[in-house]
Amino acid sequence: MAGEKDSEKQDLAIEIKGRQPRRANSRHRRREILEATLRIIARDGIRSVRHRAIAKEAEVPLSATTYYFKDIKDLINDAFGLFIEESQVRNAWLKEQTFALYQNKLATRGENTLSPELLESLSIDASTLVLEHIRRQVDDVQSRRLEHAFLNETLHNRSLEEKYQVLRGEILQAIQQFLELLGNDAPEADAHSLHGIIQWLEYLLVVENCPENWQLAESTLQRHIQRLFSPIEK
Questions:
Q1: Are residues 55 and 160 both part of a single domain?
Q2: Calpha distance 66→228 (Å, rounded)
Q3: Where is this region: Disordered (predicted)?
């Protein structure tokens, strides 16, 4: 029952509110409008989203934007939905690489249990993967601006809250599942702490991208992940 409720929540969170076209060329135009909306939000802020501005950015007639999105709130809602879809693709890379690392380590070493040596090796390689994920996130400045813009808008528009939980919850769940594999004794709490550090480092490096901050990011991740991967003392 819990799984069904979670599924229902996620379906609600990614609900599309604007008009949904059936023809391929109409779906393409609708997506162009949403992509233009994201560009404007990243460049000028969410308060700059207006039908006329979107039509100009997307190079479509004004009537097209009002046809698919009569209400600006619906346009912002569906643009956030598109941003979530694109973020899920980026986050999937980290999840796939990390779980593959775990399987490969076990297979290479021929171990069925997580020895202290294996956990230490995993922590080093996992830190490298997370740092690469952060590098990809930092390179995508537009997405970082969008992420913060939508977070701020969620504080004013509570209808976006469930969407933000989908965006945040997916990577949290992946981290928690991985920590559970390692036998971590507080996987949910530690998933939140690691996710918080990742987000802080992303923000730090977007604001001030310099070698010193990358060194700080690397050492911070190594220390924190090593602690999370350490064997539990009984």
A1: no
A2: 50
A3: 1-28
41-to-49, 54, 100, 116, 231 alpha-carbon distances in Å: 7, 10, 36, 47, 45
Query: What is the C-alpha to C-alpha distance for residues 46 and 66, in angstroms, rounded to an integer?
Result: 18
Domain extent at residue 48: 24-69
C-alpha distances in angstroms, 138 versus 142, 144, 193, 211? 9, 7, 20, 13
pLDDT digits (tens, 9 = 90+) for 204-228: 999 999 999 999 999 999 999 999 9
Give one word for 59, left, alpha or beta, with left for phi > 0 and alpha for psi -120 to 50.
left
The model's pTM:
0.82
Distance CA 194, CA 190 (A): 6
Are 131 and 37 part of one and the same domain? no
pLDDT exceeds cutoff 60 at 3: no
Residue 51 lies in a domain: yes
The pair of structure tokens assigned to 3 is 């799984």
Quote the CA–CA distance of 219 and 127 in Å, as a whole number: 9
CA 144 to chain centre: 10
Residue closest to 39 by CA, chosen among 58, 21, 18: 58
